[in-house]
Design brief:
Number of domains: 1
Strand content: 5-15%
Low-confidence stretches: 1-10
Mean pLDDT: 92
Order of helices and strands: EEEHEHHHEEHHHHEHHHHHH
Shape: globular
Structural class: alpha/beta
Strand order of the largest sheet: 5-4-6-7
Bound molecules: adenosine-3'-5'-diphosphate
CATH architecture: 3-Layer(aba) Sandwich
Largest sheet: 4 strands, parallel
CATH superfamily: P-loop containing nucleotide triphosphate hydrolases
């Protein structure tokens, strides 16, 4: 398997951009990129997982609010009890931990909650399982990804990471799990399936209570009822324990290893941080990609209201 350095996209030095390995779907003629310390066997083990009826998948492109949504789903399913330890021990990441780790999670009392960044069509499918997808304006997810790579430089082999190099890779989909734009197109096409809930990070930011209720309703009547019982006590607990402040205070739970830059994993948690980072040309280049890809598949207007207010 080749170890891909993406210097065809930019003429910057290799140490200035993250590196990835290209892995192949075990049964199809399709590939995706993984962080370089992974191997084909990890992807093979992930794809062989057979989704069970009770499974809940939290799916996303990286840096779109996955951890936030995982925490919300966990709190709803576990009646407001916080995640006990590192999040990956309770909610494995399918593409990294594989079927082996997922199967170790007991699902007799509570359903398994499985995190997954793989492209939509690669995720093990069961018509009775539930699939939540969260997406976010790509300009903000790119900035979040930049800080993510900065914080895990060894993992990505880029001690001198430069934003402009990452910008090129991201815009053309040469980063882990492929193109943001393909990813969103895949999930948007499924948004009306009864076992899919398509969510926007920005909606969670603007109206968390109703979004938590929406998640509860999607997960099942019993969860919705529990959220609303006792004057919405559980709903208030979920909102409180999934707030930016509360999640910042539980920082040790969200990552397996410490970041090299001492920055928190739960960084700014804002809409529009891209304005502090992108040049006009870069913002326009992403808008162009949104239009090209989103017009073809129907999602290009997802953030139009934000463009008007911000
Ligand atoms: P920023 O880097 O823009 O702050 P993921 O979990 O998919 O990796 O996404 C991480 C992003 O979600 C980070 O964005 C992080 O701060 C944000 N996030 C995590 N928890 C949040 C919360 N409770 N409220 C708002 N944003 C949150």
């Amino acid at each position: 398997m080749s170890h891909v350095k993406q210097n065809q996209v930019s003429d910057l030095d290799n140490s200035e951009m993250p590196s990835f390995i290209r892995l192949k779907h075990p049964n199809r003629d399709e590939t995706t990129l993984y962080p370089m310390d992974f191997e084909q066997k990890e992807l093979d083990d992930a794809v062989r997982y057979e989704a069970e009826d009770s499974d809940i998948f939290v799916c996303s492109y990286p840096k779109c609010g996955t951890t936030w949504l995982q925490n919300i789903v966990w709190l709803i399913v576990h009646n407001g009890e916080p995640i006990p330890d590192k999040i990956r021990y309770s909610m494995p990441m399918l593409e990294f931990d594989g079927a082996t780790a997922v199967l170790k999670i007991d699902n007799k009392v509570y359903p398994r909650i499985i995190k997954c960044h793989l492209p939509q069509s690669w995720i093990p499918y069961n018509k009775n399982a539930k699939y939540l997808n969260i997406t976010r304006n790509p300009k903000d997810s790119l900035i979040s990804y930049f800080y993510h790579c900065k914080g895990f430089k060894e993992h990505y082999g880029c001690p001198d990471l430069k934003f402009d190099a990452l910008f090129d890779l991201y815009t053309y989909g040469e980063v882990e799990f492929g193109s943001y734009f393909d990813h969103v197109s895949g999930w948007y096409a499924k948004r009306d399936d009864p076992n899919v809930l398509f969510l926007l990070y920005e909606d969670l930011k603007r109206d968390i209570k109703n979004q938590v209720l929406k998640v509860g309703k999607f997960l099942g009547d019993q969860y919705e009822k529990a959220l609303l019982a006792n004057n919405g006590k559980l709903l208030d607990t979920v909102v409180e324990l999934s707030s930016l402040k509360s999640m910042k205070s539980q920082e040790h739970k969200w990552t397996m290893s410490a970041r090299t830059d001492q920055q928190p994993f739960i960084r700014k948690g804002q809409i529009g941080d891209w304005k502090n980072h992108l040049s006009e040309e870069q913002a326009a280049a992403i808008d162009k990609r949104i239009k090209e890809m989103g017009d073809a598949t129907g999602w290009s207007g997802l953030w139009d209201d934000l463009n008007k207010v911000n």
